[in-house]
């Protein structure tokens, strides 16, 4: 087996042909995590992607895979595999019946199942692990390991080969893990996931996740940075775990906890902690950017070295920026269901580009005010200080989508059924477009195109640039929450029920 690997800083290119598990795979440019590494910008260098496809006729369709009944996760493509979270509405193993969280590992060439991770639901109450939500978190693949977050809030390190090459350990209790507590353990097989290590965020740190665990793990240096999904109680009126951390740092090799944010964000969380961290380089040093459930963007210094065994350190905060400074900060849950007044939260990822942070922020879609903004801030280049607000653009209603920055423009969508192209330097609108469904998914910029997907199942493709030019529109008949991604010449579109691998005819 021979291989050589090169990196251009954002994508991996590999000259290889080797067998991993059941398939021999040749591949070029993977998408091993959500967005570009560290910056979280959803821009791809892929070329030759089609503007339209048709599942009914098979036009520009490489393959499609049936998923569960509710799929919110964004697919990740690495080393010949496609990883995607869903639910168990369509059991791929008859031994696993009923509501479960599921992480599928599919063959990149065919869409066929290689293995799956099956995780029983949290049964404390439906508000801990909402029925049929499945696994919502996209995985991060680094150095031959798969890192993800289960529906139970566990951080998992998985073997990409699954159990086909044996149980690697040190975690060896996959049978118990994949079975509800009241049932006898379901024996493991070759098509089950191989858990290498597991960190139970809920059990170890007393986190009270709400509705669902969601996070895209950031890998930087020897550490993993993970948001905890800490949130409100069943009543939406109290915080059950006010002292639980919002951001944690784990040792990538072992899963050992090394640091937490220490900011006691808990009492200021209006709904949940679902934004994932990014990295910005300031004055030649990395800073961890984290958007809290309190509507504040924090900058933390990464740990210089791991603490002694048994010790957990507090991250050093360098700065913070309140995205909605005039909003109420005390007794915030009295504003639940108030559509005109209340606190803001951040559900999107902070996106780093050109020394600036682009973040969408505003009222909660289900419980909060009908206000939202895209804000661009510039942190201090060195040491602690006050970030500068560069510009603000008022969006329509609320916002779930992250911004995408490319070639002097910013693209974003909102729940007010509108998508925007803005000038990246000034925030002035270049063009906008009304759609039929809410936009939860972040747009993708690739191949001179911008791919937008809506909760009504529309996929709209525009020419990237200042001229508003619609290239294609496809109706898929099922809601889309997941962000479109591209890898190895293929575009991946995920609806609630299907994954489509889209490829230009003749490629």
Lay out the secondary structure.
Layout: E1 3-7, E2 12-16, E3 18-20, E4 23-25, E5 43-44, E6 61-66, E7 76-78, E8 81-87, E9 100-107, E10 113-120, E11 140-142, E12 145-149, E13 154-158, H1 174-177, E14 195-200, H2 201-205, E15 218-220, E16 223-227, E17 247-251, E18 257-260, E19 278-282, E20 285-291, E21 296-301, E22 313-314, E23 316-322, E24 351-353, E25 356-362, E26 372-378, E27 388-394, E28 404-406, E29 409-413, E30 418-423, E31 429-434, E32 444-446, E33 449-453, E34 458-463, E35 470-475, E36 485-487, E37 490-494, E38 498-502
Parallel strand pairs: 5-32, 18-22
Antiparallel strand pairs: 1-2, 3-4, 6-38, 7-8, 8-9, 9-10, 11-12, 12-13, 13-14, 15-16, 16-17, 17-18, 19-20, 20-21, 21-23, 24-25, 25-26, 26-27, 28-29, 29-30, 30-31, 32-33, 33-34, 34-35, 36-37, 37-38
Plain-language structure description:
The chain has helices at residues 174-177, 201-205, and strands at 3-7, 12-16, 18-20, 23-25, 43-44, 61-66, 76-78, 81-87, 100-107, 113-120, 140-142, 145-149, 154-158, 195-200, 218-220, 223-227, 247-251, 257-260, 278-282, 285-291, 296-301, 313-314, 316-322, 351-353, 356-362, 372-378, 388-394, 404-406, 409-413, 418-423, 429-434, 444-446, 449-453, 458-463, 470-475, 485-487, 490-494, 498-502. It has 507 residues and is an all-beta fold. The longest helix is centred in the middle third of the chain and has 5 residues, at 201-205.
